[in-house]
Amino acid sequence: MHLFRPTEIDGSSTLPLFTERVPCGFPSPAQDYVEDRLNLNMLLIAHPGATYFIKVSDESVTGAGIGDGDLLVVDRSLPARHGDIVVAAVAGEFTVKELRTHPDLQWFPHNNNYSPITFQNAEELEIFGVVTFSVKSHK
Prior knowledge:
Layout lengths: L14 E4 L15 E5 L1 H5 L6 E5 L15 E5 L9 E6 L2 E8 L4 E4 L8 E3 L5 E11 L4
């Protein structure tokens, strides 16, 4: 698997964006007009040369809303901060977890079946990017 693949943004690929928000409760009358056009690449990718996509293959961060098979948008240009969900290598293995920097440097799962990992120094954890969006399939 090639982890870092350049992202190309095609500015002409737009989809309709409707003005009305859709409630999750009872249905309301639909609006018959489109407010604007939306390019998902422009919405999801702030730094095209530093962005890549990766699919999740376990359930260690389900409590953060990220599940098995979800597609993550990862930005390598952003500094990783306390509370960010990041892609990193721990002992040579790629994984996705929440980064906690205080009181200790910790790799925190969002699933009770996994234990947090506390690091003695930052060199034990190689960060490959900050997760900026997750894309779910509902089928």
